[in-house]
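Researcher: Here's the sequence for the chain we discussed earlier.
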Amino acid sequence: MAQVTFLVKLIMRGSSKKVITKEDWEKRLNDVKIRKEDMNKLVMNFLVTEGFVDAAEKFRKESGTEPDIDLSTITDRMAVKKAVQCGNVEDAIEKVNDLNPEILDTNPQLFFHLQQQRLIELIRNGKVEEALEFAQEELAPRGEENQSFLEELERTVALLAFEDVSNCPVGDLLDMSQRLKTASEVNAAILTSQSHEKDPKLPSLLKMLVWAQNQLDEKAIYPRIKDLSTAKLEDPSAS
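Model: Thanks. This is the structure I predict for it:
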C-alpha cells in the first residue's frame, strides 16, 4: 500500500528520468505513513468478500477490526456458491431466495444464467428430453424478450447436436469454468444486495501498483517489484 502511494506521488511530480537507489527508495517508502487500521480493514475486506468466514472471525478477534456485514451471512453466501459449483442449481436458487428473494426478482440476467446452468447440468447428465422440455418452458420465453438470452440459449441447446461434446464448438459450456463463472455472478449479486463491494479491494491495489510502475518506468530507474507474491524490491544498480 505504501509502495502504491509513493509511486503515484512520484508520477504526479512529472520529474525528469533519474536513477533512485534502493537505499533512497526504501527511506522514502518508510516516510509514507499508512495507518494500521486501514491495513486491517483492507485484509478484512478481502476475507469477507472472498468468503473466508473462519479466517475473518479469527482476524476480528485478533485485530479488533469489525467487518461491515454479519459474518454469519458469509456462510450462507458460500453455501450458494458451492451449490452452483457442484451443479446443484435448484438448491442454489432456493438458498438465494431464502437469503433475499429480491436478488433474483430484480436481476433477470442472473436468473437466466442460473436457469441456463440448470439446462447445462441436465444435458451433462444425459437427460435429453427433460433438457428440451426445460429449455422450451423456462428459457425460450425469456429468449423471446431478450436477444442476448436467445443467443445464449441457442448456444446451450447446440450441445445436444453433438455426440462428442468434448470436441464440439460449444463444449466449453460443460467445463468447470462455466460453473465458476455462474457462481461468481451469484456471489457478486448477493454481496451487492448486502451493500458490500462485489470485488475485494486488494487485487485493485495490486493492479494500481503494476500500472504505477509502468508509468514511472518512463520517468525513472528505481527498485521495481517484479514478483508481487514476495514484494521484493530489485536493486536498479544490478540491472
